[in-house]
Amino acid sequence: MQFLGHVIRFIVSALVLLLVGWLVPQFTVGNFGSALLLALVIALLGWGIEAVFGKKVSPFGRGIVGFLVSALVIWLAQFVISGVSVTMIGALLAALVIGIIDLFIPVATPFDAASSKK
Q1: Residues 50-86, buried b or exposed e (16+ Cβ, 10 A)?
Q2: For residue 17, what are the contacts with CB-CB under 8 A and spacing of at least 6?
Q3: Which tens digits make up the pLDDT trace of 17-63?
Q4: Closest C-alpha to 24, from 74, 76, 69, 59
Q5: 3-state secondary structure 59-103
Q6: Facing residues of 86 across strands?
Q7: What interhelical angle do 88-104 and 2-23 show, nearest 10?
Q8: Of 74, 95, 112, 113, which sees the most CB atoms within 10 A?
Q9: What is the pTM of this model?
């Protein structure tokens, strides 16, 4: 059952990224497949940053550092996924919109659950 929960979280994350791509200028996600891969890459990059620098510097952390790291992760992810185009301004705006959406509809990735059990 836990596997199904992770799959649902990634699907919801991909839908949020598609919505953000529609709302934010200079942030383009080609299709649902690209959005799903983008959600996976963002989760992996965030997990890697958290493993190296700790929870306070991770994209999942709160505050200005978490916001800036989140924007950096979104910007870097475009180089891994085809069909995704993001400028630095677009990444900052996307991080802001994703943060606002997360306030109302919290979406945790499988890596959030794994890191919170430590």
Answers
A1: beeeeeeebbbbeeeebbebbbbbbbebbeebeebeb
A2: 29, 35, 38, 39, 98
A3: 898 889 888 889 988 999 899 888 888 887 887 788 777 665 555 67
A4: 74
A5: CCCCHHHHHHHHHHHHHHHCCCCCCEEECHHHHHHHHHHHHHHHH
A6: 27
A7: 130
A8: 74
A9: 0.74
51, two tokens: 């493993």
Residue 106 near residue 98 (C-beta atoms within 8 A): no
The length of the chain, given as a count of residues: 118
Other beta carbons within 10 angstroms of residue 100's beta carbon come to 11
Q: At what angle do helices 63-77 and 88-104 cross, to 10 degrees?
A: 120
